[in-house]
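USER:
Make up one protein:

ASSISTANT:
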Amino acid sequence: MPLIKGDDFKPHGMFKNGHFNTFVPYVFGTVPDVSYSRIRLDTPDNDFLDIDFSRRGSKRLVILCHGLEGSSKSGYVLLFADYFNKNKWDVVAMNYRGCSGETNRKLQMYNSGSTGDLDLVVHHVLPHYEEIILVGFSLGGNIVLKYLGEEIFDISPKIKTAIAISAPVNLADASQALLKWENIFYQWKFLVSLSMKIWKKKKQYPNEINRRLLLRSTNLYKFDNNFTAPIFGYRDADDYYAQNQAIQWLQNIHVPALIINAKDDPFLGPECYPYELIKELDNVNLCAPEYGGHVGFAYSRNDRSWLFEKISGFINN
């Protein structure tokens, strides 16, 4: 598919800085009040998923998939829920295992390739809707694209479109990008949150969690190597990234999909912008504006109009 134009996003001043556009809308942006109703789904492995609905009586549904250590209450998720509600869509916001405010039962929580849980949510909502759109942010974008392309699940024809925003489609490359010194703030924010969850898991599974390994996990790569990979049965972090990065399945996606990755995204490396591959694909599109940061794309702390217009144009094309 041809690359989708991104040079129409022209923020001013400090919003041309990727870190600024990542941080300021996240910390200082106004978050809409979205009324959710929660449903708990039992999983096949005797665990649970909490999903939050915001209904408008529509037969059209958007499934929102949050990023690393996010939830249905993350500001960007609430912004999208509010936007789609105002455009007469029902919304369901996922909470990955351990992200709903309650620790899940199993040792495993979630990872960058947790497509089985997304499939469970899709099949729960299928009987009630005529049209479904999948929207994933960051890690959630990788999950959405992997789900559609890995050819494990029966993808319903009701799924009409997919949007992946700031998606680390090459996980190994994104991991290396996050190791840069200028990303230390993001590293520690994620590590503190993930480490707290691992401490809770140690209480549930005292023989499965090594306290010394946790103390040695001083960046996200080491955390994935010491915990994420072995807990989910991967050899190491490199094996975990290789087996779950969505880039290897993009050619198998059969619904229109749009990846929106800003070139100044501090979380992404150069391999997360597969320009040449996208040109050869029938259904996957890439929009890579110069600016936007990570899940930012803001003109001001409260103005995400470019992002919504770009997504609306794609959906309604």
User: Anything to note?
Assistant: The chain has two domains: 13-170+246-315, 171-244. The first helix runs from residue 18 to 28.
